[in-house]
């Protein structure tokens, strides 16, 4: 029973009971239909709908998407609610999202508690509101607000909803009691049904301009633009025809790869931090944190910890270094204050009480977890860990933020390798959502659980990685960067590649990202790897020459691009370096189509990702996808590299890799896992599903 029917005097109550979020699956829809019919048959004067548990309906049941529809459909149900001959009242708490808000709009009156949130997140699933939302919402809020709510997918609070007329009343209390009181009030006033569909559509706006503005922001994502088309239909068509047009557009989006990619992202985000092997393992308490090194990363990590309510002791090498670290953190906190993430009192308390910047490691004696973010150099890291071993209290967790280095080797310098873990944050660490939890050969289960618990507390999406050079994300990036460098040497330009990647949907092109992160980072890494390179490896050097010339990217004003304020133009020093290297190697440049650039780049990424999964560095394909989405600007609507690969078809991708291997067998060695999946006719998603069982 997912909908309970109760009579409260002459008011019928339909109580939704489908934990955890009252999703509108088939049984709930059928229950609502039965309840509405029964209420009228039993002579009720009004109907109150509310959700038991933590929320009103949080939307359609996403797990049903892509399967044959079972009647009653959600749009039909919304119409049925609206056509009810007695007033229907929505009493909302928790989250009224998507189809949930559409049911509420089908109701005649809406009341919400002050903490309720309402919104249309469908665009984030590659869809649009498909149960009348695009036709009813504008009739209530006008076009501008409807377009903003539907195309942003951002929920609003009850106060804003009241402002917009989306709810009639906001009152604190228990939803059932509020709904009943409101129903009685309405009956006393003689109020009858008030169908939104009978309200006139608002005056039309310039929809072409609205679509253009939304398309610009959407960066290749289809659903927000198609959503505006559906909203536009409400200005041109009668309500019923508008509904039909909305349905047509909804079903067209349902057929897209983008819908599949975004729903994969939705479920993977929730799946990724689940650790079945750690069931029953309790994390250690972490309330105070030590941070060694207060540069870019150390200051960001300290800020993230402070904002989450931890106390932080930060250690730098000199007093000046400690002062500079404190200034960096203060600047991060000022940003958080400006954006309303903290108030002045919290800001002051953090800066004056929760943070200590010092130079003496002895100050770390009480820290529950100590993370180092010192220079990326094995000797320096080892020295730091040896010192930590001496000062850290028993049971303290010793973490490294290393980007590439071997965690197990670092751990050998301590007497407690079971307490050592990698916590790889991304820059800026107080903003970026990704955390790679790097598990060493000897890391104890409760230390892993603690890493995940800390990630959760800091608001991060944590992904487990094994130890290898660069872990999941940087190892993949190293490979696709190499692929891009090969294409540049063979005739493409960094600017063509960046344009292709941005058109694919990456937030930034690869070379622009390098400029942002600092080209010296990659340079230092290439120097570290130089002695380890296989003689068969094709190693481009133009990027090193750019660094040798002092071009480190945004921090020096010049890299692949020249930066003046926020504008960037191509750096004319780059292509001569490339041309000189082509000449030296005897390469006659050829032209690359945009399609070939994308295909090779993605093939390199997928192939490396498949090796990472095959070697057990990532536990499942979805872990790799989440790293790419959360940390490397991979377009969410493509779901991640391995979801993208599934949608493209693995056999053709493997064929392409094999054809590229004819030019460079070393670089393009096919991943054994990819070969195996193709041979078995399976997909990466099959592996995800098997892991979930
Ligand atoms: N359908 C199916 N399962 C859902 C779901 C939905 N709409 N929403 C959440 N769930 C599941 C989650 O997958 C998770 O399952 P798990 O425990 O097995 O991992 C469980 O419910 C709890 O979800 P969260 O961990 O996300 O819980 P939170 O409390 O953090 O967040 C929430 C709650 C804000 C409701 C969040 O789950 C959410 O944003 N859900 C999606 C809402 C949404 O997109 N609704 C629109 C659906 S599309 C639609 O309605 C189409 C219509 O217009 C026709
Ligand atoms: P950075 O150069 O900005 O900061 C390093 C800081 O460590 C400096 O302030 C230095 O004074 C301090 N330091 C060095 N040795 C020390 C010691 N023995 N004791 C105390 N302080 C010491 O470097 P950044 O960029 O912050 O990187 C730090 C670490 O984080 C590196 O391992 C890097 O690979 C990793 N990382 C960097 C990312 C980035 O985007 N910059 C992203 C993720 C990880």
TrEMBL record:
Family annotation (InterPro entries): 3-OHacyl-CoA_DH_NAD-bd, 3HC_DH_C, 6-PGluconate_DH-like_C_sf, ClpP/crotonase-like_dom_sf, Enoyl-CoA_hyd/isom_CS, Enoyl-CoA_hydra/iso, NAD(P)-bd_dom_sf
Membrane-traversing stretches: none
Any one GO molecular-function label of the UniProt entry: NAD+ binding
Domain 3-hydroxyacyl-CoA dehydrogenase NAD binding: 289-464
Gene3D superfamilies per record: 1.10.1040.50, 2-enoyl-CoA Hydratase, Chain A, domain 1, NAD(P)-binding Rossmann-like Domain
Signal peptide feature range: none
Top-level taxon of the source organism: Bacteria
Catalytic reaction annotation: a (3S)-3-hydroxyacyl-CoA + NAD(+) = a 3-oxoacyl-CoA + NADH + H(+)
Keyword DNA repair: no
Domain 3-hydroxyacyl-CoA dehydrogenase C-terminal per the UniProt entry, residue ranges: 470-563, 598-682
Pathway note: Lipid metabolism; fatty acid beta-oxidation
Subcellular location(s) per record: Peroxisome
GO biological process: fatty acid beta-oxidation
Keyword terms, alphabetized: Fatty acid metabolism, Isomerase, Lipid degradation, Lipid metabolism, Lyase, Multifunctional enzyme, NAD, Oxidoreductase, Peroxisome
Location, primary (coarse class): other
Family as reported in the entry's similarity comment: In the N-terminal section; belongs to the enoyl-CoA hydratase/isomerase family.
PANTHER family, alphabetized: 3-HYDROXYACYL-COA DEHYDROGENASE-RELATED (PTHR23309:SF51), 3-HYDROXYACYL-COA DEHYROGENASE (PTHR23309)
Protein name, UniProt field: Fatty acid oxidation complex subunit alpha
